[in-house]
Amino acid sequence: QLQASGGGLVQAGGSLKLSCAASGGTFSAYVMAWFRQAPGKERELVARISRSGGSTSYADSVKGRFTISRDNAQNILTLQMSSLKPEDTAVYSCAAGLKFDYWGQGTQVTVSS
Around 108, how many Cα atoms within 13 Å sit in the side-chain half-sphere? Predict the structure, then answer.
């Protein structure tokens, strides 16, 4: 089970930290990722992290502004977002597995201009 939290309303240029708490499985066994979906747009893979946390990748749209990390001891995935832009407004969801078989509910992030 995946539980995302940390969304909210923030002004452009601000920061937010999203968290995804995992339970019911071996967290360290799963590749993890954050996705987002804005109204009227397709779901977008924002960032992905390897099982150990040693390898990460980002969408070009967030590279240099967002940081994905994980704590395998605490079973928590995080997404630190900075220099937020109005176009980052979306519902953000965490997912687990090579094919992203497991999903948490989303958390709304709204960036005002």
Answer: 5
Lookup result for tokens 């590279």: 63
**Rounded-to-integer distance, Cα 18 and Cα 30, Å:** 18
Using a 10 angstrom Cβ sphere, with 0-12 exposed, 13-18 middle and 19 or more buried, the burial of residue 106 is: middle
**CA pair distance 2, 65, nearest whole angstrom:** 24
Task: Decide: 44 and 36 in contact? Cβ < 8 Å.
Answer: yes
Torsion angle (degrees, nearest 10) of CA 60, 110, 41, 59: 10
**pLDDT over 70, % of the chain:** 100
39-58 confidence digits (pLDDT tens): 999 999 999 999 999 999 99
Q: In Å, what is the CA distance from 88 to each residue of 6, 54, 81?
A: 15, 25, 10
Two structure tokens written together for 74: 């605490």
Which residue, 93, 82, 103, is CA-closest to 44?
A: 93
